[in-house]
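re: that chain from earlier
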Amino acid sequence: MRGDRFDWDDLRYFLAVARAGRLTAAAVRLQQNHTTVSRRIEALEKALAAPLFDRGPQGYRLTEFGQRLLATAEMVESATLAAPTNIRGSKPPVSGSVRIGAPDGFGTFFLAPRLGQLCRDFPQLDPELVTMPRLFSLSKREADIAISLNRPVEGRLFARKITDYELGLYATKSYLSGKPAIRGVADLHGHRLIGYVDDYIFTPELNYLPLILPGLTAQIRSSNLVAQYNATLAGAGVCVLPLFMAGREPRLVPVLADKVRLVRTFWLVTHADLHSLPQIRAISDFIAREVKAARALFLDDGNRSARRER
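^ sequence. v structure.
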């Protein structure tokens, strides 16, 4: 940057901070020190005569001017990455840091064990897996790729369905032993149920119990599905769990499998401006292939009668 002239290279620093939300995290991605990143952001703001970020204890948040620049910066990034293909016909390398936001159950039980294979397939990739019980905002760059329980209807987003998945009631044999028999959904009133804290049901798709029986409530509650799973394993009660988590756990047995079956959908969502980037496409295709290959984990194979049930 000379004087107040605009420097295209500063857009790399701007994008890194916009996506990471913090100077230190952006500096790691850029392999620079945080003072250099701060200086380049300040130079860019001076050249554009506009504040791009609101600085605060929670990090850097885009201002209205920053949001406007974000779209331009991403188009420049896309065009830059596509240049080798357009000019020489060669494919750009699949490299860089990509953040994947996923629900805690899917991220922990399905994606995490497969990250090693992803890195073997693409050794220049640096995947970041954020597993939290929440919705991820792609427009705010909380993630580059998000696994969602619903298809977005607003925003410049690209969504692809990766699978339906089944949920059912599960408990341990030790919990069920000596308890009143569960022959119908009404019998659940006589049992301890495990479920979500109402205030932390971040999407209606997770509000299972009223669908099973109106008025049914949990006595043990957690905001986190993995915590619910572990409480169930410890014999604390009966819980609605996905087949991909509970179906192959020998300590858990299905409850009312012939009467309670819920089906939800996982969507893979990317921002329209990033969708064609080679690293985004590579990871998106990898996740879709892995899910397809493991279809039996997500949906029952039809042999419900062969499954042991209390």
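Confidence is low (pLDDT under 50) at residues 303-310.
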